[in-house]
Write a structure and sequence with these properties.
about 90 residues, alpha+beta, Alpha-Beta Plaits, three-stranded mixed beta sheet, globular
């Protein structure tokens, strides 16, 4: 199944009223542990004191974009900008 990852990223970048600023979005498609199609999203946020509720709301918004556009499950990971620079 081909997923429009660029389109998903564009939708994520267009989201308003995010609970915390997102510096960058990374979107990939693949198979999950049960071999079902899925989408992985990395949200790079400013290194901040984002609390658990803020992160939960951000992840839910990203999952909604994927579910509404593809019907697939999205695995959403949030990384601080400093951490993402080390990983890249």
């Amino acid at each position: 199944m081909a997923v429009d990852t660029a389109g998903i990223r564009a939708q994520l970048e267009g989201l308003h009223n995010l609970p915390t600023p997102v510096r960058a979005w990374r979107v990939e498609e693949g198979l999950d542990a049960t071999d079902d199609p899925a989408v992985w999203i990395w949200a790079v946020i400013e290194q901040s004191d984002a609390d658990a509720d803020t992160l939960r709301r951000l992840k839910a918004m990203a999952r909604d974009v994927v579910r509404d556009g593809t019907g697939l499950w999205a695995y959403v990971l949030v990384r601080g900008a400093d951490e993402a620079e080390v990983i890249a």
